[in-house]
Amino acid sequence: MTTPNNRTNDDNHHRPNPPPDPRRRRHYLGPPVSTSSSAASFKGCCCCLFLLLIFLAFLAVAVALVVVLVLKPKKPQFDLQQVAVQYLLVTPAVGGGAPPAAAYLSLNITLMFMANNPNKVGIHYDAVALDVMYRGVPLGVATVPGFEQPAHSRRLVQTRVVVDHFNVLQSDALDLVRDALLNDRVDLRLTGDVSAKILVLGVSTPRVQVSVDCAIVISPRRQSLTYKQCGVDGLNF
């Protein structure tokens, strides 16, 4: 026999659930708007930076072409104009052997270079140190301070070489004494590298190397230059 209470429980058990409230449904609307805009901005910045780098590269190439085609850079010229010899002394080392095993060289000379810039623009030279050698033996260093030279100009550059009590081996010392006293000539060589930059509208180009090689012959008696051959090689613009 079915009672009212049992019927009520059966109705509640078979009754379907009410549909969910549509206001409680969560809809996926995609990523936040701020995240999408940030990604687009980042991509745009990368593209702009890449285009800027390409533009700067083309601009550098264009400037280089203008310098080469319009200005037509030429090699600067270094000529050794004068050599003044204050003293040249060779003192044999004290010892019982004959000939002596070594000798001491003292030297004081002044070198005067003529720098000629035939270019349409100025050139900047860094400080340079030129090695002074006798028969391949380094004697001292001639330092030349850095300077700027205007276009189509000439400038005198002076430097001094001082060698005090330099120890020379026996064979080189004997050759030096013979050349100075008997032949009245001393062959010296100056070599070194100079860093140069072209100045265009106040802006300097990348540094280039200038190889300097000078051969000179001086007369100790007359304290004058008797022969010179000085040039600049290896300058590539």
What does this protein structure show overall?
- The chain is of the alpha+beta class and 237 residues long.
- It folds into 2 domains: 44-73; 77-233, Immunoglobulin-like.
- The chain contains 3 helices and 11 strands; from the N terminus they run H-H-E-E-E-E-E-E-E-H-E-E-E-E.
- The chain has helices at residues 4-14, 33-71, 170-182, and strands at 77-92, 102-117, 122-125, 128-134, 137-144, 147-149, 153-169, 186-200, 203-204, 208-219, 224-233.
- The strands form 2 sheets. Strands 3, 4, 5, 6, 8, 9, 10 and 11 form an 8-stranded antiparallel beta sheet that branches. Strands 1-2-7 form a 3-stranded antiparallel beta sheet.
- A hairpin with a 4-residue loop joins strand 10 and strand 11.
- The chain is elongated, with a radius of gyration of 42 Å.
- The model has no long low-confidence stretch (mean pLDDT 74).
- Its main location: membrane.
- It is found in: Membrane.
- Keywords: Membrane, Transmembrane, Transmembrane helix.
Output the radius of gyration. 42 Å
Give the total of beta strands.
11
The helix/strand class is alpha+beta
What is the domain tally? 2
Stretches where pLDDT is under 50 for at least 5 consecutive residues are none
CATH class of the largest domain: Mainly Beta
Major pleated sheet: 8 strands, antiparallel
SSE pattern, N- to C-terminal:
HHEEEEEEEHEEEE
Strand content: over 45%
- Overall, the morphology is elongated
Terminus-to-terminus distance = 116 Å
Q: Tally the helices: what do you get?
A: 3
Could you tell me the CATH topology label of the largest domain. Immunoglobulin-like
Helical residue percent band: 25-40%
Average pLDDT number: 74
What is the CATH architecture annotation of the largest domain? Sandwich
